[in-house]
Specification:
The chain has helices at 10-15, 21-28, 32-40, 47-56, and strands spanning 2-8, 65-71. With 73 residues, the protein is of the alpha+beta class. Helix 2 (21-28) packs across helix 3.
Length: 73
């Protein structure tokens, strides 16, 4: 069986941007835990938030996540 998962690149993109996680937390009115979950892939921003994130992080929406394919038995 093949599982497709999303690996978040948000944390890496934030770290190389001019923004801090705290600034993004305030911008989106989210908790620090929510931003952390976006960065680790435990939860995802809404579609409008993804487009806004991509714009402020100077990337494409596709760059926020990458697909990981895992083979299982």
């Amino acid at each position: 069986m093949t599982l497709k998962k999303l690996k978040s690149n948000i944390g890496w993109l934030i770290d190389k941007s001019e923004y801090t996680r705290e600034e993004l937390r305030q911008r989106y009115n989210k908790t620090a835990n929510t931003i952390s979950n976006w960065c680790t892939g435990k939860s995802y921003p809404s579609a409008p938030e993804m487009f806004d994130l991509a714009e402020i992080l100077n990337c494409k929406v596709d760059d926020l996540y990458e697909r990981k394919v895992e083979e299982t038995n």
